[in-house]
Design brief:
The complex is a heterodimer of chains A (406) and B (97).
Chain A lengths: L6 E10 L2 E2 L1 H10 L5 E2 L10 E2 L4 H7 L9 H16 L12 E6 L8 H9 L10 H5 L3 H10 L5 E2 L7 H14 L5 E8 L3 H9 L29 E9 H6 L6 E10 L12 H14 L8 E3 L6 H15 L5 E2 L2 H4 L6 H15 L1 E2 L22 E2 L4 E8 L3 E8 L2
Parallel strand pairs in A: 5-6, 5-7, 10-11, 10-14
Antiparallel strand pairs in A: 1-2, 1-8, 1-9, 3-4, 7-8, 9-15, 12-13, 14-15
Chain B lengths: L9 H11 L4 H5 L11 H15 L16 H14 L12
Classes of the chains: A alpha/beta (406), B mainly alpha (97).
Chain lengths: 406, 97
């Protein structure tokens, strides 16, 4: 990619089960302990634990939204505000039509599904909230971020299941390269609900380690039995590096590569050899003009499901031969679906800034055949110039991003 | 909780607006317009739904003489009168369960 089209990450915002704001999440990741805990909202369900975002700080960061918007919208607004402030930008002073908003969301939150289904079933249509559509439609995370932060450029949602956040960030980079905007607020957001939990449990995708929630998300471990439902939002402020330099911003990293592919294989299972995943990583490397040996670290998708981790390990060997050190953010924060790729992109940029890889929680005994150098127990300081992050969604929709130090 | 028997008062409305819509009570005292309080057309509809669920009364929302530009005190008078005039409907018809 030519230098004039380099994209800088100048702001980061995070809302996770570790808290609202980048410092809480980075600290928790470096501690390497899971945020999974019994959740009163899931009492009585087959899987009564999850990695839930604390409600009070979200309410404080995005006040007045709860009555009109589901939590994923509040998460996105809170993370976007943090990212914009972090970037040193002033929403009252910027050229609003040149600011894009791309927020990935995996699906509707189903927060209102039980009440709405009951009302429909009983013909009590008067009980259906007038805000049902605008509070739950996936595009409304980007919509409210645009409204509340005065961003009037291209504003939309990407939806590629668990890759949605990474797809949003990659797509935002393309908008910047194409000159369609000067600044992009890009990320992903998702909130968990009892219906989501029940649905993923029914699919056999969730860990049922109810006796030990904190040990349930254990990517690459021989005792893993599924993912732990998480929620949150990750938002980056992206701009062309020349634009960032002109306003003397100090970027965390450069986003230099984006690859996106489809497995065209199965609704929920990844291709057994991770062919689509490999092509996504190779495409991101080619976009960045890097070869596999240039990558110093991979922030893996690593959901802790039996199939995904095995296929991902295979895919990483396919691309890298001997893969660089790997870590699994979902071991600490759970799997926040459409938000995960964006949260992990943010963590990748922080990893480059701090030159420190956070440990993967709960990896005690790697599964036989998974031969990866996974960082465990304590953070690993390491000289890193380039970091890749992978995201794989249901439907075989894959995205990979490459970040480089600057 | 207010029931269909107890009158729906200014205080009942204030409780809903402050608790459910997170609007600080002092902003109501300032008599800001509904719009300034963050209650746009959708917000007004949600407010009426919340009142219906609490009072078990069906308010005719379509011809309610309220606009987002109206000061809160004036809108409150209109809403309270509309609740007083509204017919009681079967308990539960306005809430899902």
């Amino acid at each position: 990619m030519n230098a004039s089209a380099e994209i800088a990450v100048t702001g980061i915002g995070l809302v996770t089960a570790a808290g609202v704001g980048v410092p809480d999440t980075w600290r928790r990741l470096c501690e390497g302990t899971s945020t999974a805990a019994p959740d009163p909202g899931l009492t009585g369900l087959p899987v009564p634990f999850a990695c839930r975002v604390p409600a009070a700080p979200v309410k404080a960061a995005a006040p007045g939204l709860a009555w009109r918007a589901d939590p994923f919208i509040s998460f996105a607004v809170a993370a976007a505000r943090e990212a914009v402030t972090d970037a040193g930008l002033d929403q009252d002073a910027w050229d609003a039509p040149r600011v894009a908003v791309v927020i990935g969301v995996g699906g509707t939150t189903h927060d209102h599904s039980p009440a709405t289904c009951t009302a429909m079933d009983k013909g009590r249509f008067q009980a259906i909230p007038p805000t049902l559509v605008p509070r739950s439609a996936p595009n409304m995370a980007a919509g409210y971020v645009g409204m509340l932060l005065s961003a009037q450029g291209p504003t939309f949602c990407t939806s590629t299941a668990c890759a949605s956040g990474a797809t949003a960030i990659g797509t935002a980079a393309l908008l910047l390269r194409a000159g369609m905007c000067d600044i992009a607020i890009a990320g992903g957001s998702e909130s968990a609900s009892p219906v989501t939990s029940a649905a993923f449990w029914r699919m056999g995708a969730l860990s049922t380690r109810t006796h030990d929630p904190a040990g349930a998300s254990r990517p690459f471990d021989s005792e893993r039995d599924g993912f732990v439902l998480g929620e949150g939002a990750g938002v980056l402020v992206l701009e062309r590096a020349s634009h960032a330099r002109a306003r003397r911003a100090r970027p965390y990293a450069l986003l230099t590569g984006y690859g996106a592919t489809g497995d065209a294989y199965h609704a929920t299972a990844p291709h057994p050899e991770g062919v689509g995943a490999q092509r996504a990583v190779r495409a991101a490397l080619a976009d960045a003009g890097l070869s596999p040996q240039d990558i110093d670290h991979v922030n893996a998708h690593a959901t802790s499901t039996t199939l995904n981790d095995r296929v991902e390990a295979r895919a990483l060997h396919g691309v890298f031969g001997t893969p660089p050190p790997v870590t699994a953010t979902k071991s600490v924060l759970g799997h926040s679906l459409g938000a995960a790729g964006a949260i992990e992109a943010a963590v990748s940029a922080l990893t480059l800034r701090h030159q420190l890889i956070h440990p993967t929680a709960n990896l005690d005994q790697p599964e036989t055949g998974i031969d990866l150098d996974v960082v465990t127990k304590v953070p690993r300081p390491q000289r890193m110039r380039a970091v890749a992050t992978t995201s794989f969604g249901f439907g075989g929709q894959n995205a990979a991003l490459v970040f480089q130090g600057c | 909780m207010t029931t269909s028997e107890a009158p729906f008062t200014e205080e009942s409305l204030k409780t809903i607006v402050v608790e459910q819509f997170e609007i600080p009570a002092d902003r109501l005292a300032e008599d800001a317009t509904l719009e300034a309080l963050g209650l746009d057309s959708l917000g007004l509809l949600e407010l009426l739904v919340a009142i219906e669920a609490q009072t078990h009364k069906e308010i005719s929302t379509l011809d309610l003489p309220i606009t987002p530009g109206m000061p809160y005190s004036e809108a409150a008078r209109v809403v309270i009168q509309a609740v007083a005039d509204a017919p009681v409907v079967g308990a539960g018809d306005l809430v899902p369960e």
